[in-house]
Amino acid sequence: MAPMSDDSPQPATPEIVVAGPEHLDGLVACHRASFSRHGNVIMGLGKGLLRSHCRFYIERADAICVVALDAQGRVTGFVLGGSPDLQRRFVRQHAVHMALAMLLRAPFNASLRRRLWAAVRRVAGRAGRCLGLVRQEASPEPAVTEPEGRWGTLYMIGTRRDARGQGIGEALMRRFDEEAARQGFRTMRLVTKAQNEVAARLYARAGWQKVGSVGDLDTYERKVGGLPSSPSA
Ligand SMILES: CC(C)(COP(=O)(O)OP(=O)(O)OC[C@H]1O[C@@H](n2cnc3c(N)ncnc32)[C@H](O)[C@@H]1OP(=O)(O)O)[C@@H](O)C(=O)NCCC(=O)NCCS
Predict the structure, then answer these.
(1) What is the per-residue pLDDT for 229?
(2) Atom of ligand 1 nearest to the CA of 34
(3) Which terminus has fewer CB within 10 Å in the chain: N or C?
(4) Number of domains in the chain
């Protein structure tokens, strides 16, 4: 550790690393310290699924999981992303566990009740269309077109509440960009709630551009590469 030059404590520059199995517990704890319990569907389904979700992003070769570590090695921030179908694959693998967790928790959680109801409506609509009972309706809003070349998603970014405003979000974005380039992605895309202004400003600073909106969700994109590299990379 570098010798301290004076008595005033300086905020240490976080170390930004690609997560390994040794960061699993810290990553789970960081999720819980960054998002409200109902602000994120996986967290709303309990610690077991949250842990499986973190492990999934650490282990998959086409996933990107980057964490920020403070001087004590505590995970203070994270960013997850990678191939666009990762989330679908996770849901498929854990469908039974997720459905049971949703059913058990829905009576106590309004956000889960809304999601469960939306899922039931989607399944019913699909079944109705297959049976010819429901007409295929045109999408009310134009879909955002797929980027050219290999593209991926930034699925989630979070910084512990007690570590915000220190540039960790920006540092995570830089390392995420480097990892995306290393894995051969040409474009990255993310979807975020339009009312999340802090996140929107962070995305704008990191060079993301809004390419479309559907309801209260905004889609952003950026070409991979070109961010100044992170000091600890
Ligand atoms: C969005 C988020 C990741 C930003 O992380 P961060 O490490 O605070 O990012 P930065 O330090 O690079 O910048 C954050 C902004 O918060 C400001 N800020 C300063 N002190 C702060 C504090 N104590 N608490 C919150 N924000 C603070 C910063 O000045 C900066 O503001 P600006 O955009 O006006 O310049 C973080 O706020 C977060 O985890 N939010 C909850 C999860 C979320 O919404 N994720 C995005 C959708 S998946």
Answers:
(1) 64
(2) 39
(3) N
(4) 1
